[in-house]
Amino acid sequence: MATPKLLSVFFPHLVAMLVFLDLANAQGLQLGFYKKTCPNAEAIVRKTTAQYISRAPTLAASLLRLHFHDCFVRGCEGSVLLNSTKNNQAEKVAFPNLSLRGYQVIDGVKSAVEKVCPGVVSCADILALVARDAVLMIKGPFWEVPTGRRDGRVSNANEALTNLPPPFANITQLKAMFLGKGLSVKDLVVLSGGHTIGISHCSSFSNRLYNFTGKGDTDPKMDSKYIVNLKSKCKPGDVSTTVEMDPGSFKAFDEDYYTLVAKRRGLLESDAALLDDNETKAYVKLQTATYGSTFLKDFSESMVNMGKMQVLTGMAGEIRKHCALVN
After folding, report:
1. Are residues 192 and 288 in the same domain?
2. Keywords for this entry (predicted)?
3. Binding site membership for heme b: which residues?
4. Mean pLDDT in runs of 10 for the chain (327 residues)?
5. Among 13, 67, 69, 322, the one annotated catalytic
6. Distant-in-sequence, close-in-space partners of 69: CB < 8 Å, separation ≥ 6
7. Which of 71, 82, 180, 251, by CA, is between 20 and 30 Å from 161?
């Protein structure tokens, strides 16, 4: 068994090596990658995405989450889109992914692109572009999406369980997970701001309301009046009800999320955890005090950073014909 001293020497080198490999692959990405092979690809993605978002704007939050869940497991290579097979349970069926939505949008966009440029544009790139376009369509920020990702051939439910930051994670766990992926502490607090849109199931935070330490108590880090409000919506054992993550503003991409966190009204333990670290707390206070003066710009930059995580480029992986199936 490795000694703590040996681990303390080895782990930083391992993280550094993984980050170096990620950077090497990320250099295979470029803006306008399909300029010659499928010049209308991004326009087709944007138009088709708009058809879905115009009918169901709340899908924007779902598609952003789908992209996040893809990138944090094996990198941004479309593994979250794959179906299970007879001999393999895919990421889709892992507990944290059971509430994911928006697969039909990705399939619809892929089909539209395939009609014009068969076998050219990867599902991983389509997911990255769709997430950006969907957020922009609900008046969120724009960010450039370098393309050239290839699709992975492996999807494993257990890897989703170990790689996705859980809603009950503390700040130490969150920082370790983000740093281990080559992201920064700033990326952590900025990307958490994505919770400004969307909803959450009561089961993701009900322990904070009813049984935080196993003694039928509430989480002292949550505002007591907010607890009363949430209890009126989420009864003990409720696994189906959903609540807004940014009450009153959950359809708008704004800085209100940080105002709520500062008031101890972050819905998840991982939201509240942002007040437990000097750097993340300072960012929360900055956005609250300045009405989100840098949030949209910061979010765009962090999304670009996340979109480069562990990508497959060159001849690695494949270009799937159907996003739910390997070729």
Report:
1. yes
2. Calcium, Disulfide bond, Glycoprotein, Heme, Hydrogen peroxide, Iron, Metal-binding, Oxidoreductase, Peroxidase, Secreted, Signal
3. 195
4. 45 49 68 98 98 97 98 98 97 97 98 98 98 97 98 98 97 98 98 96 97 96 98 96 92 94 98 98 98 97 98 97 97
5. 69
6. 80, 91, 96, 97, 100, 160, 164
7. 251
